[in-house]
Every structure is written in C-alpha cells, then in structure tokens.
Amino acid sequence: MYTLLILCISFAISLLIVPLFIYIAKRFGFVDYPNYRKVHKVPMPYLGGVAILISFTIVTLFAQPVETEYKPIIIGAFVICLIGVIDDKYDLKPFIKFLGQLVAIAVPISYGIVIDTITPFGVEINFGVFSILVTVIWLAAIINAINLIDGLDGLATGVVIIALASIAVITIFQQNIFVMMLCVILLGACLGFLPYNFHPAKTFLGDNGAMMLGYIIGVLSIIGFKNITFISLFFPIIILGVPFMDIFFAAIRRYREGVSVMRADKNHLHHRVQQLGFSHRETVVLIYFIALLFAIGGVIMYLATVPGAVIIGLLLLFTMNMVVEATNLIGSNRRPVLNLFQKIFNKIP
C-alpha cells in the first residue's frame, strides 16, 4: 500500500505541475523550434524534465529513505538537468555537453557508487583502478541512449516507464526496497508527464529530461545490480534494449558512412519505422511493444537458470536482428534472415 501511495503522489504532483512548466517555458523562451531534423511543426516547450525531477525529488524526500545513496542521485540529476536546460536553450557543442555529463557522473562516483566487481561463472573480477572508467562508460552510454531515442512524442518517456517497471520487478525479487521505491517514484512522475507528452504533444522532455532520466536509471542500475554476476550485467542492457540498439547501430552506420558518430541524422529507429509507412502514434506504440518485449526478456532472464538465460538472450538477439533488417537500421540494405524466411515461405505450396 505504501508503494502504491508514493506512486500516486508522484503521479499527481507531476500531473499538476507540468502545465506550470509549460507556461514557464513559453514565457521565458524555453521552446524547441522546428528544423529539418525534427518532426514537430510548431515551437514546443521543453522543460518537461524539470517537472519530472521536481516531482521525483519531492516524493523521495517525503519517503525519507534510510539509504544515503538518494543524495547523489538527486544532486547529480539536478546537475545534468541544468546542463540539459542550457543545451536546449543554447545548443551546446557535443563535446561541451559531454563534459557536463561527466560532471554529473562524478557525483555518484564521489559517493562510492561504482561498478567495482563482476562475477562471471563464479570467478570474481575486480576492476580496481578501472572501476571508475567502467562506471563512466556505463552511465554515459545510458544517458546518451535515452537522449538519442527521444525523437517522437512520448517515445522516450514510454520506453523509460517500461524500463523502470522492469527494474522495479527485479528489485522486488532481490528484496532491494530502496531501488524499488525510487523506481516507483520516478515511474509515477513519468506517468504524470506522459499525457502531456504523448502525440500530439503539448510539451517535450528536452535534453534536460532525457539525460536526467538516463542518469537516474543508470545510477539505479548500478546500485540495484552492485557486485553483479556476469549474466546480470546484461539485465539493464536488455531492459533498455531499444535505446541501446538504436545508439549501437547509429554508431556503426555513421562509421560506415565516414561521418562523425556524434553527428545527428534522421535515421534512428523511430525514423526508420516511420519510413515504412507507420503513423506517428503507430510508430511510438510499435516501439513500446519492442521495448516491452526486451523488458520482459530481462525479467525472465533474471528468474531463469544460466542455460535458460542464454536461450532467452539468443532469442532477443534474433529479435533485434529482425528489427534491424526490417528497418534497415544499419543502412546496408542487407536482409539475410528475412530473405531466407521469404525463400522458405515461397516454397511452401
């Protein structure tokens, strides 16, 4: 009942304050103007992340968690949200924005929240002095994966909601009440924001919201899977399969084309799905289902034995390959598996 209570409070606060931040954004010029890379046609306020963060902070402080890890989560979230607001307003260069991300990432690291060991097949590996580097790479990857998928109304928010629900389920099995509680609070804040963000959107997350959500999920995943085994190392990656798939193949595509991996384009997963003829809403809902499939796979992997987890992992890899081929996400126009299935079905009388 307490979990349901904090979920409802977080949802209600977010639902009530988002219109206020829509007004503030319009009043002070924090709006996203249309250009050739963007889907929307009219200027759109983008302080959604600030509203979510305030709701998350209020309810977290109200819940009064015993664990002190909530402090670096909130402090770092405000830092990266501020960097995002500045970037949304003044369009920072990628390198400058990345430096800002590093400042935020330094906050949990300074509190000792790092990936220090993994245990592949019962053998403990201690990263030692490299634990900080591993943590930086991990958090930066999640932050930018969520940020890059924020390209359609409600897309990033919905994918984050699915991820948070999945992590919360796993932490229930782990009896990690602290991480579960923070996941539920952030989940409620995102649910309160989604009605204003779903197509046709009244407001956007902005980089401030997308990076902030990626940051909190990244830190929660480290706390929730601290001293993780080799298999459980992949749980957050699987749960966030859609944004990780998008950022991974975007990097490959840009490398093949000989352009900077930091260069923005209109060839992300949501763009590719729309190019197949799906409408804005249909594209978002379809990607929700893909994200849900990966999230359920991650939960099942946690409950399965090692052989079962390997089988689930292979099935998810197969699914990912089908998505990549169907959408031409890698930009090669190669469809070996789909062509094989087509030949097989053509031979069936």
From TrEMBL:
Transmembrane parts of this sequence: 6-25, 46-64, 70-86, 98-115, 127-148, 155-173, 179-198, 210-228, 234-252, 284-304, 310-330
EC number of the protein: 2.7.8.33
UniProt binding sites for Mg(2+): N147, D207
Listed InterPro entries: Glycosyl_transferase_4, PNAcMuramoyl-5peptid_Trfase_CS
Pfam families according to UniProt: Glycos_transf_4 (PF00953)
Subcellular location: Cell membrane
Superkingdom of origin: Bacteria
PANTHER family listed in its UniProt record: PHOSPHO-N-ACETYLMURAMOYL-PENTAPEPTIDE-TRANSFERASE, UNDECAPRENYL-PHOSPHATE ALPHA-N-ACETYLGLUCOSAMINYL 1-PHOSPHATE TRANSFERASE
Protein name per its UniProtKB record: Putative undecaprenyl-phosphate N-acetylglucosaminyl 1-phosphate transferase
